[in-house]
Amino acid sequence: MGLSYEGQNIGLFGGSFNPAHAGHLHVAECGLQRLGLDQIWWMVSPGNPLKTDQTPYAKRVDSVEALNLPPRMRISHMERDFGTRYTVETLRRAKKRWPRTRFVFLMGADNLQQLPKWKNWREIMETVPIAVIARNDTRPGAKTSDTIKARLSQAARQYSYARIPESQAHTLANYEAPAWTYLTPPLNALSSTAIRQKRTSPR
Fold it and tell me: What is d(CA 187, CA 27) in angstroms, rounded to the nearest whole number?
C-alpha cells in the first residue's frame, strides 16, 4: 500500500464475494467504463458484520483471482491490512492514507436498500461519492422490483438532492460527497447465493 496514486480516480468495489462470479465482474466493468475511473480495487471483506455464514477469506480472494481480472482492476487487501470491520472505517482510513486520490465507492442496488443498517451510513454517503449499479437477478422467482425499491429507499430519498444524473456519471469522481449516481447496465442473472446453492445441492 505504499504507492501514492496521486490524482487518480479509484473505484472501491467492496463485498464478501462469497464467491466472486461473472455478475460481480459485470458490475465492476460497468463502473470502470462509465465512471471515468483509472482503476478499480476489489476489496474483499475479511468479515461482513451483516452476514454470519462466511467462507474463509483466502478462498474468497481465490474466487476473485479466478475471474482473471482485466487490466486496471486488482484485489486490495486494505480492509485486512487496516484491521477495519466496517465500511465507514475503511473509507476514513483510505482517505487518510491516500489524501490526493479521488475515491468512488461502488455498490449494488440491493446494498443501497440495506445501507441504513450499516454502521454510520450517513457518514459513508458523506465521505466519498457513490455509484449504485443495478444488478437485478433475472432468475425465475427473483424479485423484479429491486431497482424500484432501491430508487425509493431511505438513503435514495434522504440524499435525493445529491444525485448526479446517469448521463453525467463520468464526472462523479470530481464531486465532493455527498454525491451519488445510479447506473443501469445490461442485467446479469448470476448471484453468489445461487452459485453456493448449486455447489451444495445433491447431484
Answer: 9
